[in-house]
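4.2 Preliminary Data

To establish feasibility before requesting continued support, the project team ran the inverse folding procedure on a target of 391 residues. The structure was first converted into the token representation described in Section 3, and no sequence information of any kind was made available to the design step. The complete token record follows.
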């Protein structure tokens, strides 16, 4: 999308909302935003919430869009607008939101007004659909369907036909609309049936191959977890043996430590008594809190190399006992749960499915009738901006 196309799109977007153009320069565009446009691209939601709640007068936002970075206007606060700009993406989103459904009327050029002959307009429902064939791969099919609401029938490549017609949002003079013999809901049902017919003619090999790949992946997963279940008893026996060896080693260490402590306790009283008797000083009991001096503040405690958790414990921060902690959410998944989860993931990835999404649509009152699909394609439907399929 070149800069000229960007400007044309922005001008068409603003014209559709009847925006007031203050200044139109070859290099920039100054515009006063309408309410709908301001809410979509103005980036001031708090202002609008305040205005609507307090019922205040609306102060329009004035913006200047520049389309050439080397030719910015002097003395104006301009914003360079290009395809990748954030403001341009907001304009695209606003156009998609407000222009998803339209109502247009055909107006033939050169109609003799003096004749004062009324021309009927036939109602058509145009739907642009994206049909997605999904598995571990993806393929999209675009369908441009037109449903005649007066004489029910369905045609393809309807959008390509519309691009060649002069359309206007208001009904022209000396035209009148025919009655709709079917409702929009019934027309949507006809479109669903047409989509089903199109899919029925498609090659279904993609779905068969996807299910085959799914079965292969599930077989590999089953083999992996079966082997894991077979090895678990052996690992458990080895773990019990190692635990017994570690327990025996620790019990021996505890016995040696107890003997060493007993020998030291027998020698310490006599030595302490002799020292106190010689100095004439009585021994005073001491505690861990007397021997270790705690810092006065958290900064001093951190500077001395202390841990935050120890500081919190020392200052009376409540610590939840382990038996009161709910461990259900943090418990380790069992092999069966892990297997089921991975099977669900594989099924979601490989299982073939079809999704149909409405891109946009509209109600069109036409004096012309679209030709047959074969004739339309032969006369240049491939040259229109929207035609054919995207695979």
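Position-by-position output of the design step:
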């Amino acid at each position: 999308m070149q800069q000229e196309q960007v400007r044309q799109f922005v001008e068409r977007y603003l014209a559709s909302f009847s925006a007031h153009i203050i200044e139109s320069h070859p290099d920039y565009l100054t515009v006063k935003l309408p309410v709908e446009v301001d809410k979509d691209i103005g980036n001031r939601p708090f202002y609008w919430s305040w205005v609507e709640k307090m019922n205040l007068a609306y102060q329009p936002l004035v913006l200047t869009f520049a389309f050439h970075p080397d030719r910015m206007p002097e003395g104006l606060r301009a914003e360079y607008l290009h395809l990748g700009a954030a403001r341009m993406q907001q304009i695209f989103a606003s156009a998609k939101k407000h222009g998803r459904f339209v109502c247009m009327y055909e107006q033939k050029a050169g109609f003799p007004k003096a004749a004062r002959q009324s021309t009927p307009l036939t109602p058509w429902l145009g739907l642009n659909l994206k049909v997605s064939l999904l598995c571990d791969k993806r393929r999209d099919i675009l369908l441009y369907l037109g449903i005649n609401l007066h004489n029910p029938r369905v045609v393809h490549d309807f959008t390509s036909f519309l691009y060649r017609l002069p359309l206007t949002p208001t009904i022209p003079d000396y035209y009148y609309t025919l009655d709709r013999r079917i409702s929009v809901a019934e027309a949507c049902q006809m479109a669903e049936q047409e989509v089903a017919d199109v899919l029925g003619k498609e090659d279904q090999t993609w779905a068969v191959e996807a299910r085959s790949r799914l079965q292969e992946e599930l077989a590999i997963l089953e083999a992996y977890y079966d082997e894991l279940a077979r090895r678990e008893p052996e690992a458990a026996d080895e773990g019990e043996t190692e635990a017994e060896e570690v327990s025996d080693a620790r019990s021996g260490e505890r016995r040696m430590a107890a003997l060493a402590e007993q020998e030291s306790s027998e020698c310490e009283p006599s030595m302490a008594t002799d020292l106190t008797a010689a100095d004439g000083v009585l021994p005073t009991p001491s505690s861990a809190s007397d021997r270790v001096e705690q810092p006065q503040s958290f900064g001093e405690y951190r500077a001395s190399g202390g841990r935050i958790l120890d500081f919190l414990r020392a200052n009376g921060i409540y610590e939840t006992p382990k038996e009161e902690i709910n461990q259900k959410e943090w418990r380790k998944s069992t092999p069966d749960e892990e297997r089921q989860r991975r099977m669900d993931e594989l099924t979601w990835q490989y299982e073939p499915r079809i999704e149909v999404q409405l891109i946009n649509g509209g109600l069109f009152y036409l004096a012309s009738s679209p030709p047959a699909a074969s004739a339309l394609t032969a006369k240049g439907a491939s040259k229109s901006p929207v035609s054919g399929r995207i695979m």
